[in-house]
Amino acid sequence: MHMPVMPAGVFGRFLESCVKPEIIISTLDVERLEDLLASLPQTGLAGRAELEAELNRATIVDSEDMPPNVVTMNSTVKFSVESTGEEFVLTLVYPKDADTSGKTISILAPVGSALLGLSQGAEIEWPKPGGGLIKVKIKEVTDQPERQGLFHR
Fold first, then answer.
1. Backbone dihedral angles phi then psi of residue 103, each to the nearest 5 degrees
2. What is the average pLDDT across 33-61?
3. Does residue 101 form part of some domain?
4. pLDDT-wise least confident of 1-5, 40-44, 75-79, 85-89
5. 18, 66, 122, 129: which is deepest, by most CB within 10 A?
6. Is 104 helix (H, G, I), strand (E, B) or coil?
7. pTM score
8. 123: which strand partners?
9. Which domain holds residue 58?
């Protein structure tokens, strides 16, 4: 049986498109997010599986050692959506702190869990509600509790 040969570089680009960027999460955020997950229904909740997957693949660091350009809980982030070119500034919050002001995004929203742990300049594709993918790029972490020495926010 003859196997087709991929042109040079195609397989590498295919693998790169499947690999998600590295994410870094603080010990405090992991603890609080695990508590949140434990309090939620095991099935039927949108966002649960995505958040669990992100926590499972993350590099965990002490809150005091968090790089200043990484999205943590309660960080304010400027990001863009590639498909529309739209830019947003949102604060990543726990579900209880989400509101309808248009200034917050819940960690359980698809884009919310996609933002967690990303570094400035990183891009990620994430499933959007109703199907399809959304590509998000972190432009700037404008506010981060750890950068300010606030470890209990």
1. -110, -5
2. 82
3. yes
4. 1-5
5. 66
6. strand
7. 0.77
8. 137
9. 21-144
